[in-house]
Structures are given as structure tokens and as C-alpha cells.
Design goal:
The protein has 250 residues and is an alpha+beta fold. Helices cover 35% and strands 19% of the residues.
Amino acid sequence: MRNCSICQHLRIVRGCLDDYRQFACFHYRDGRPGPVASVFVLKSAGTLGDIKPEVSVGVIVYAMAGPVLEMRNVATDNFFADLDRGTQLALVNKNIRRISRVIIEPRFRGLGLASHLARETMPQMNVPIIEAVAIMGRINPFLEKAGMTAFASEQPVRTVQLIEAFSFLGIEAEQLIEPQKVQRKLDRLSLTETGFIERAIQRFLKSHGRRRNMLPGIERTRYILTRLTARPTYYIWFNPDMAMRGGLSE
């Protein structure tokens, strides 16, 4: 099903932390989503396959933003920098909310619903800026599809080389968040392909201390993929209908 058709059968409503807890088990990060500001839930508006009306299929959690974030200063031309702690916190609280979690029920992933949920709810927060920090931003750029602008630090050369090596063997970047599937593909490689990827992996692990001696298998694959996707991307969205409270213009 395509996003344009499935969205006709869904609606977005205000939710609460209990709605988030229903989906928390599907998210790659453990722990609390931070000081929550708002929760929105994506619900079925009618019968959708075997999904009955009013069943939740996704959730987005907005939290209060932290006072200090380096990439925020880059994105906002240091508007929130060089202030005393109290002034900085007050200015951030007045102008920014942070997307803390976006979770789609596994059966409905790959349909663009995460982008739809973020795009439709950001204006409802009634603040000039929405921001997010996503570890998986390079792998699944759904926040950019929702209209946010990405600010990412450069990846180390060894990281880029290993991602390219995986791609050469048919393991694309968007698959690198699924260790079990990657391991199954690695197990099916020919001897020549195995030698090729092992050399790339050894180059990547060279600076990882004792981890460089890990034996091939799911634990090593899980470790490698965690490191490949561990560099977060900062995202920001300026509300076109709201001026900054404090003098910053877009």
C-alpha cells in the first residue's frame, strides 16, 4: 500500500504516555523519552486489512529540548549560544520542542507513515522550531522527507569504506539496522566475497581495541552495525507561520 492511499484510512489524535508505552518495545532505544511535551497517535479510521477501527498503528512523542546542543548552534547561527544558563534555558523552552520518538507498528513500516506523522504534527506544537537527533538518520532519512533539514558530521573514512563494501555485496545502507538479516546474507557469501568483506571489516575494526579480534558471527555483526549507525544526525524545522520569540529570523 502506498502512503497516499493508506493515509486516507488513518487519523492523528492527541495521546498520552500510555500510548507511547504501547509502542516502546518496537523502538531501538531503551529508556524514557525525556520530559514529554505532547504525544500524538496514528489510528485506523476504518477497517484496514485485519486492523479494526481505532487501533493505534504509530506514535510520535515530543519532549522539551535540552539547553545545550552543538549542532543547534550551527543550524541557528548561534542564537542560543553564549548566554547564561537561565536565559538560555528560558529561550529554548519558549522556542523549541524536540521529537523524541517516532514509532510505527512493524506491519505498517515502509509506507512513509513516520514522515506523515512528523509532517502533520510539527505545526501543531505551536513553537517556532522543532528539532530531533537521530542515530539512524543516515540509514532512514524520514525526518528529511517530513520537511526537516539535516546537519550531520562527517563519517570516518573507514566507516564509509565498510558501508560501500556492504553495498557492493548487495547489503544496502537501509538494511544495516537489521543484524539478523545482514548475518544471514554474510553466511551465504562465496569464499571470494567472504574474503573481500573480511578485509573491509578488519580495516574498520583496526582501531576498536580488543573488538578487532572478534570472531565472525552475529555478535560481531551486531557490534559493527551499532558502530556504523552510531553517529547522530541533527534535524531542524522552522515553523513558517511563527516568528522566533527573541528576534531570530529564519
